[in-house]
Design brief:
This protein is mostly beta strands and 297 residues long. It has a domain of 187 residues. The chain is built from 2 helices and 16 strands.
């Protein structure tokens, strides 16, 4: 299914701004600056015309953030930063200046769920206290509710006019993000639960509905990171990982398939499938997109 990357806004970046200071840095944790703000770490961004049957007139944008999410990374897992702004920019006339910006902002609400212990109800720090899903609203046992909103900004990303993107089904401007894949006991069948958070959306100024998803996705490619960072300690002609276990490989029974740490880890993706009418002006065919993240000023 075509999606554009983000927090679904699973979203994208090249600069971080804080208290008037702009800090530029690469992603994937290899730049020292971004290690201080891992929730703003933007990794990969993709743009392509949709290949799904019947959606050839749609452009898919995918933005990835917060990499290296180990499957055992609880109990709080990998929420997006409520103090951050995640953006996808579109330049539709080839002048390297954004004409459209999809701007994502997140809110995290803890419910303070309790469990009985010693005759008292004790508040727990865990994300959940029981099963979740498969429906989007099956959240009685979920201690953390993650929501987000998206604005479409025309013109300059800071001074342009912002209009909220809304849910095609009910007109709401607030969307729910699925909780991360805690494990098979908490969420027995994660894919259909996550799919419940794919939204048909109304994009201001466009007659066709788009589609959006924000949430955790499995890494789509394989890199033996621990061996690469160990002075390129690889054995390309030998068995996988040089016949030795990877030091950082997750060991949980339902770890994602793959022989590489990267293949077994996840990241948050902001994805959007937008009608092409929102991505270019008549007569212009040169388009570029990029992702950005920053702190709110």
């Amino acid at each position: 299914m075509p999606m554009k990357r983000s927090a679904a806004l699973a979203a994208t970046i090249a600069a971080v701004a804080f208290t008037g200071i702009t800090v530029t840095g690469s992603s994937h944790r290899e730049a020292p600056g971004i290690t201080k703000t891992p929730k703003l770490d933007g990794t990969d961004f993709y743009m392509f015309r949709s290949f799904e049957p019947g959606r050839a007139e749609y452009v898919t944008l995918l933005a990835n953030y917060l990499p290296l999410q180990d499957v055992y990374g609880g109990p709080n897992f990998f929420t997006m930063d409520p103090d951050g702004v995640y953006e996808i920019h579109i330049d539709n006339d080839g002048d390297a200046v954004e004409d459209l910006t999809f701007q994502f902002r997140f809110q995290n609400r803890y419910k303070g769920l309790t469990v009985p212990s010693g005759g008292q109800d004790i508040e727990v720090p865990l994300v959940n206290i029981g099963g979740i899903g498969p429906a989007r609203g099956d959240t009685a046992n979920l201690n953390l509710i993650e929501t987000y909103s998206v604005d479409l900004i025309r013109g300059d990303r800071r001074t342009g006019a912002a209009t909220p993107i809304t849910n095609e089904a009910n007109g709401s401007a607030v969307f729910r993000k699925p909780v991360d894949r805690i494990g098979d006991k908490s969420i027995p069948n994660y894919p259909p639960y996550a799919d419940e958070h794919i939204y048909d959306i109304r994009i201001p100024g466009c007659g066709l509905a788009g589609r959006m998803f924000v949430g955790q996705r499995r890494e789509g490619f394989v890199v033996a990171l621990s061996e690469v960072f160990d002075l390129i300690n690889l054995n390309p002609l030998g068995p996988t990982d040089g016949a030795r276990p990877c030091r950082t490989r997750p060991t949980r029974s339902h770890s994602r398939n793959g022989d590489s740490p990267t293949a077994e880890r996840s990241r948050n993706r902001h994805s959007r499938s937008s009608p092409a009418c929102r991505c270019h002006r008549s007569g212009h065919h040169r388009r570029s997109c990029w992702a950005r993240r920053r702190w709110t000023a």
